[in-house]
Write a structure and sequence with these properties.
mainly alpha, globular, binds magnesium ion
Amino acid sequence: MPQFNFATVRRHLENREASLSPHAARSAAGRGRAVAEEPSPVRTEFQRDRDRIIHSKAFRRLKHKTQVFIAPVGDHFVTRLTHTLEVAQIARTITRALNLNEDLAEAIALAHDIGHPPFGHAGEQALADLAPEGFRHAEQSLRVVDKLERLNLTLEVLDGIVNSSKVREGIFAEAWGVPSTLEGQVVKVSDAVAYINHDIDDAVRAGLIGENELPREVHDILGDRHSQRINTLVCDIVEASWAAAGEEPDADAEVAIRMSDDVAAAANVLREFMFQRVYLLEDRQEETEQAKNVVRVLYEHYSQHPEEIESDFVILDDPPWQRAADYVAGMTDRYALATAARLGAPTAAGLLASGVTDERPR
Ligand code: MG
């Protein structure tokens, strides 16, 4: 019977990474962790990060956080958790096709929204207006894994998380940072591929748009159906980014994660359409204001009474505003609503009652 030892397992893991593209990140040659640790006997460092993220409390709470539609009651609306899983899925497909490090992409994807406040963008905007140093969910995601839950992740995963969010101008705009690894860049674009598509589904479900109202070039270039559109985008990214796979070394080929011009243009048309018709829709302003008000009530209350914060994940030496921001940002939609109601916020009851209440499987 062959001798078992963990050194053999490790050699297999490292050999597998050695066969990746020369442009892939390799855990064995990584930048390490802030606090050095003994290696896991059966996992690479990036696998280990992925597992830590999945076991964190903040990750579990994603299931009750809004993606776009606030505190939806309907079973089929996308939540922050299902969005996160879709991003991880798309990022894994692209990294595997490009022979990049799938484990690294998965870890970054699973944590990219882990610091998102309740009520989606409305909650983020409310905290940005209130906190003296502003608030951005990508920076909060970094803070959650690094400072609050203290997961001691690798620097590649932290870099991918903090550089994952996009500005309004376009999917490939660089204003909020470019991840240093190709795997981080894959997650950044996979986030957009996921949300512009699942948000169509949700907007149709909520009656805001009809699927046949999508702009002509979206139908013509990306496809008529959800699965076609994701497939078009993913295949295009793989083709346009093929230099990253390192198959045919070409000194002139730029190694980057990108889309072809036509598909990128159609994706940005779709994204802009979603901003106009869904994200910034006037009809949703009342709901948005109610959600912001809930966050405001909570933030102001806990800034003034930080001693009432019941959480293992605030830092007692931090100023009260920071403890309040961390606490409120960590809340699920329903916990925020219930807490605000307990504190006497006038609008919370209205938000709790909204949404579709009976949804058949379809
Ligand atoms: Mg996201």
